[in-house]
């Protein structure tokens, strides 16, 4: 640092004839220096206050960061979903806790250093300025009081000389020896000499103080610079630590592999999560209670043609005879497209079964698919069916007749009748036999027609033996075509 240069001091113009008692205030310079020391003392006091409040602020920041730490101090909710090893979310939060605690501690350390290392520098400087003020008061200030006292003494003797000189003129020179103006004049000169000595001594003291002030102020500035440098080092170190800790938090978060948590989650829950390589569920592989109960297995199922009531043309539908003795009609055998609710349901024990005529046979009864209440008021309808082959018609006729005449608990092992069996198909006496139509026969088999006359419901018609139905074309489902 450059050494302070001595400023050009003001000079006073002197004349040969000077007043014995100058009109200047001897304490003016002392007061000026005193005010300047007060200014420096207040400036240093401002720095002390700044450091004190800064220290308290860092202490408060330490407490505030402890509050921040509490937001991530508790274990993570549902923390078992995160991998507890380093490198994941749990490790990231542990890093955040550690760095946040470090930031809090750095603020406490900064506050401690400001209070114990930096603030005393300015407190000592403040004390030095106070001591300089005392030195000024006891030194130059005391000399100024001596000058004022000497000037007052000289002033009294000059005034006494003036009184005695006036008396000399008025009395014609007659007076006592002690009032002789000559004696008084020599006394004034003596006291004026002492006054000037005090003035010169005080002047020399003030010059010394004035010269020392340049060095003292340089010392003040150097001390301030040193203190502020130490202050900057402390707070910048804390700021650098805070920056590094925040950088470590961010770096830890950015280093987490994108699939780290998911991979660990899958490994921990591999018994619960869905295996993407496993095949999808199918209805065919699903089992449920009573799925294979004997009452759920159809006695015969397949497609038949039924003659319409209005258009008189045949429509193909899917029909099932169940062990519960119902003949259900469906649009198709698809269980998935829509809810498979029967379009038509006949309770076979209440129906009249006609004889087989080629591929055709008829059933007369009421549709009970809408419920019991509507069934009471519904009319009986004669439904004319046509199988794909004559043998299929015989098979359907035999099983329908068996369901109509047998008990509810009797479920045949196979819906196809044994070869040479004689089914009985009761029909109403007043019912007309449906006219036979040309149908396709089974490959390698001849069509077998039932006797031409309809059988009565009471079984008055003589039974005619018919050929046994062929085995089902669908394995495990007898009679399905």
From TrEMBL:
List, alphabetically, the InterPro entries matched: AH/BAR_dom_sf (IPR027267), BAR_4 (IPR046868), PH-like_dom_sf (IPR011993), PH_domain (IPR001849), SLM1/RGC1-like_PH (IPR046869), Slm1_PH (IPR043453)
Composition bias, Low complexity: 1-14, 404-416, 450-459
Compositional bias ranges of the Polar residues kind: 419-442
Domain PH, residue spans: 298-407
Q: Report the SUPFAM superfamilies cross-referenced here.
A: BAR/IMD domain-like, PH domain-like
Protein's UniProt keywords contain Transmembrane = no
Alphabetically ordered keywords of this record: Phosphoprotein
Q: Where is this region: Disordered?
A: 1-23, 404-481
Pfam families reported for this sequence: BAR_4 (PF20400), PH_20 (PF20399)
Look up the domain of life of the source. Answer: Eukaryota
Q: Which residues form a coiled coil?
A: none
* Descriptive protein name: PH domain-containing protein
């Amino acid at each position: 640092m450059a050494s302070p240069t001595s400023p050009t001091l003001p000079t006073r113009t002197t004349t040969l004839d000077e007043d014995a008692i100058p009109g200047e205030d001897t304490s003016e310079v002392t007061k000026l220096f005193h005010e300047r020391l007060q200014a420096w003392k207040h400036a240093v006091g401002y720095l002390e206050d700044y450091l004190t409040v800064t220290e308290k602020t860092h202490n408060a920041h330490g407490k505030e960061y402890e509050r921040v730490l509490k937001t991530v101090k508790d274990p993570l909710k549902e923390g078992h979903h995160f991998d507890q090893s380093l490198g994941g979310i749990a490790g990231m939060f542990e890093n955040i806790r550690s760095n946040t605690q470090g930031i809090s501690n750095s603020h406490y350390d900064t506050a401690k250093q400001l209070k114990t290392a930096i603030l005393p520098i300015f407190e000592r400087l403040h004390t030095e300025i106070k001591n300089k003020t005392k030195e000024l008061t006891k030194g130059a200030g005391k000399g100024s009081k001596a000058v004022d006292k000497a000037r007052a003494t000289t002033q009294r003797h000059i005034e006494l000389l003036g009184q005695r000189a006036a008396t000399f003129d008025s009395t014609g020179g007659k007076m006592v020896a002690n009032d002789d103006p000559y004696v008084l004049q020599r006394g004034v000169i003596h006291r004026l000499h002492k006054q000037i000595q005090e003035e010169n001594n005080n002047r020399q003291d003030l010059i010394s103080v004035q010269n020392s002030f340049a060095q003292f102020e340089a010392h003040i500035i150097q001390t301030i610079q040193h203190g502020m440098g130490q202050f900057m080092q402390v707070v910048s170190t804390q700021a650098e630590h805070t920056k590094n800790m925040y950088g470590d938090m961010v770096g830890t978060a950015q280093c987490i592999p994108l699939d780290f948590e998911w991979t660990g989650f899958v490994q921990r829950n591999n018994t619960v999560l869905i295996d993407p390589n496993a095949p999808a569920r199918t209805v065919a592989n699903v089992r449920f209670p009573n799925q294979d109960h004997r009452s759920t297995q159809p006695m015969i199922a397949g497609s038949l043609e039924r003659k319409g009531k209005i258009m008189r043309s045949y429509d193909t539908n899917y029909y099932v005879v169940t062990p519960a003795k119902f003949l259900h009609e469906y649009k198709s055998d698809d269980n998935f497209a829509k809810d498979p609710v029967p379009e038509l349901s006949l309770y076979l024990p209440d129906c009249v079964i006609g004889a087989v005529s080629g591929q055709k046979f008829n059933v007369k009864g009421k549709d009970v698919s809408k419920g019991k209440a509507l069934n009471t008021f519904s009319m009986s309808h004669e439904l004319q069916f046509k199988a794909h082959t004559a043998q299929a018609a015989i098979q359907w006729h035999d099983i329908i007749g068996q369901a109509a005449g047998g008990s509810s608990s009797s479920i045949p092992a196979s819906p196809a009748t044994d070869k040479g069996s004689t089914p009985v198909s009761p029909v109403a006496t007043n019912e007309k036999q449906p006219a036979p139509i040309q149908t396709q026969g089974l490959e390698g088999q001849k069509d077998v027609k039932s006797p031409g006359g309809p059988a009565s419901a009471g079984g008055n018609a003589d039974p005619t033996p018919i050929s046994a139905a062929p085995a089902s074309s669908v394995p495990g489902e007898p009679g399905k075509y």
